[in-house]
Specification:
It is globular, with a radius of gyration of 19 Å. The protein has one domain: NAD(P)-binding Rossmann-like Domain (Rossmann fold), CATH 3.40.50. Helix 1 packs across helix 8. Strand 2, helix 2 and strand 3 form a beta-alpha-beta unit. The chain has a 7-stranded parallel sheet with strand order 3-2-1-4-5-6-7, with helices on both faces. It is an alpha/beta fold. Helices cover about 40% and strands about 15% of the residues.
């Protein structure tokens, strides 16, 4: 009679013992990335502008800490990183959405903010994260694919969309051996999307379900899965990863 041995196939969490910082982690892509990182064993630090929503997100996640501030405030951002215990392993920057107001209707200040907001925030975080993130860790930026199709009134969105991959690639060299990558989503069904589309949200969802090659709408958990993969895969840097369900290939 042959004895059989039961072998456990339990997988070790791939971010166990690591710390993930999510700038803009109280909702949408940032919150789902923090949740996914926690599921892989990471400690998480999340930030956001809304103190009440951030506190609840931190409780739901079991976050190590939460810090409420506006990441576009350079003084507040510098103070946050100065107070952040080291070492940390990964930083994700989930910034505000694109500004869709036609550029010819913007005043000089509005245009400057729309052009620089995402890139300046990425640079500011990169500068402050340089001495905090361990070698081999990651800085992950969020861009988009929607601006690749040139449309009337969309010049600024298209310009920022085109510039972000070059910025990420350059930072990958400047911050090495810290890895830098860019995630470029299309439409993602988040509270931000709901606030932008309001009454048109359901129609947009139906349209995408009927036209996207994947046959469904991309959600924040899809983007979070990619973000955590980029934290885990130590061979990837300087890359841009599209995640739009094929949106840019269909009318």
């Amino acid at each position: 009679m042959t004895a059989t041995t039961s072998v456990s196939m339990v997988r070790e969490p791939e971010l166990l013992g690591q710390t993930v910082v999510v700038i803009g982690g109280s909702a949408g892509i940032g919150l789902e990335t923090a949740r996914r990182a926690r599921a892989e064993g990471a400690e998480v630090v999340i930030t956001g502008r809304n103190p009440e929503r951030l506190k609840q997100a931190g409780l739901d996640l079991g976050a190590r800490s939460t810090v409420a501030f506006d990441a576009n405030d350079p003084v507040a951002l510098e103070r946050f990183f100065a107070d952040l215990p080291t070492p940390i392993d990964h930083v994700l920057v989930s910034g505000s959405g694109p500004r869709y107001k036609p550029p010819l209707e913007m005043d000089t200040h509005e245009a400057r903010v729309a052009l620089s907001e995402h890139m300046l925030l990425a640079l500011a975080v990169a500068r402050r994260a340089a001495g905090k993130v361990r070698p081999g860790g990651t800085l992950i930026l969020i861009g988009g694919t929607g601006g690749r199709r040139i449309r009337p009134g969309g010049a600024i969105v298209s310009a920022v969309t085109a510039a972000m991959p070059a910025l990420a690639a350059g930072l990958a060299l400047d911050l090495a051996p810290v890895r830098v990558n860019l995630i470029a989503p299309g439409f993602v069904d988040t509270p931000l999307s709901a606030s932008l589309l309001v009454e048109g949200l359901d129609n947009r969802r139906d349209e995408l379900r009927g036209t996207l090659p994947i046959g469904r709408v991309v959600g924040p958990a899809d983007v979070a899965a990619l973000a955590v993969h980029l934290m885990i895969n130590t061979a990837v840097t300087g890359a841009t990863y599209d995640i739009d369900g094929g949106q840019q290939f269909v009318a």
